[in-house]
Write a structure and sequence with these properties.
The protein is of the alpha/beta class. The chain has a single domain, classed as 3-Layer(aba) Sandwich (Rossmann fold). It contains five helices and five strands; from the N terminus they run βααβαβαββα. A five-stranded parallel β-sheet has the order 2-1-3-4-5, with helices on one face. α3 packs parallel to α4. The protein is globular and about 40 Å long. The chain starts with a strand and ends with a helix. It binds 1,3,4-trihydroxy-5-OXO-cyclohexanecarboxylic acid. The site of 1,3,4-trihydroxy-5-OXO-cyclohexanecarboxylic acid has 10 residues, from loops.
Length: about 140
């Protein structure tokens, strides 16, 4: 079975309690359970990691190419700042789908730029938990 690495970036462990007006009331556990259901149905295996540490995310992506067929990532705040995560994705060439719960283009100006979008196969944003589920389906279709 093909394996997909799922990375949740910084502060996403707080989902459910964090700015519910922006991110809704869904928790990270609920998102992960829903992702695993899709994975089971589509016969892929997920490894799911949440990290608040940029270097750990870079390390995981760096080692992912031979172990995983694709990467589903919500880089969270690192979306807007991390050349290192972008370089890890382009350097390994791993097929990547970027997701965001919120519509980053409808928010503060500093969120309008994603350093990750140019190195992702595609980006899905603005649909809450469904961004992840649609992103996973699209990534599975791709790999
Ligand atoms: C986010 C959007 C980012 O701007 C923010 O820093 C996050 C979450 C989203 O899923 O909507 O932490 O990636």
């Amino acid at each position: 079975m093909k394996k997909i690495l799922v990375i949740h970036g910084p502060n996403l462990q707080l989902l459910g309690k964090r700015e519910p007006a922006v991110y809704g009331s869904v928790t990270l556990d609920e998102i992960n359970i829903a992702l695993k259901k899709v994975a089971k149905k589509r016969k892929v295996v997920l490894q799911i990691v949440q990290s608040n540490v940029e270097g750990r995310i870079v390390d995981l992506i760096g080692k992912a190419k031979n172990k995983f067929s694709g990467l589903l990532i919500n880089p969270a705040a690192y979306t807007h700042t991390s050349v290192a995560i972008r370089d890890a994705i382009s350097g390994t060439g791993i097929s990547t789908v970027e997701v965001h719960l919120s519509n980053i283009h409808a928010r503060e100006e500093f969120r309008h730029t994603s350093l990750i979008t140019p190195v992702a196969k595609g980006t899905i944003l603005g649909f809450g938990m469904n961004s992840y589920l649609l992103g996973l389906e699209a990534l599975i279709d791709l790999i």
